[in-house]
Amino acid sequence: MATFHAVSPQKTYADRFFILAALWGLLLSIFHAWPMIDVRLSEYFFSGPLCLGSPTTISCGSFHLGMDRPIIALRWFLYALPYVAVCLIVASLVLARASRRFRNQFPIQRLWLSLGSLVLGTGLITNLILKAHSGRPRPSQTDLFGGSLQFMPAGSFHGACQSNCSFISGEASGAGWLVCILILLPPRYRAWIAPPVMLASLATLFFRVAVGAHYTSDVILGWLFSIVIFTGLLALEEHFAAR
């Protein structure tokens, strides 16, 4: 008697996009509903008590890692990595345009898609819209951590920050984009390039919180946001390729 095995359909990029987008929304809801998660995690890197009381009597700590020279140098290195990746992608596109052999070896459409996701996700939505209009002060700007502005939960959009605000992290968004472009690499290279890229990407998130530049919600949501945007563009590519 024949036995039939049910085969579960493979998830499409559209499926992954909706799952990741739902996860992003869920995490935002959690951080907004329980804002003390952000405060407590930032407090862990704050050397001293929180800055409570009258401005003339405050005696509190600081984000001491933000003044450490090796940490500053490492942060600049991590900050530069997405720009290095952009230069490599642009160089690959130039080579592909000049040589048919290179053109046949490179996933040209995916290279353009990766640049598009960076411009759309990190450039336009994160830096020009959210960071410009969210109003959320960075930890070091809030009165809890030595600043003058009131703490605001993630996603509130009612803070007093005027520009380049904390929600969401642009550097974390760039770090998330680095993880996305790993799928552009051939599998034989991806196996040994992926671990250091993942480490550098996650280290970027860690240091943004450790030096008081962002809250944990800012970096997690910024990192995941790039992955959501990249997956969304892959879903569009998949949709039009199937037509």
Please describe what this structure looks like.
The protein is built from 8 helices and no strands. By secondary structure, it is mainly alpha-helical. The chain has one domain. It has helices at residues 13-33, 36-43, 69-98, 100-105, 108-133, 170-180, 187-210, 216-241. The two termini are 40 Å apart.
The total count of helices amounts to: 8
Number of strands: 0
Secondary-structure-derived class = mainly alpha
N-to-C terminal Cα separation, in Å? 40 Å
The average pLDDT is: 90
Taken from the alpha-carbon principal axes, the silhouette is globular
Q: Order of helices and strands, N to C? A: HHHHHHHH
Number of domains: 1
Radius of gyration (Å): 21 Å
How much of the sequence is in beta strands? under 5%
What is the helix fraction of residues, given as a range? 55-70%
Give start-end ranges of low-pLDDT stretches. 1-8
Q: Characterize the main sheet.
A: none
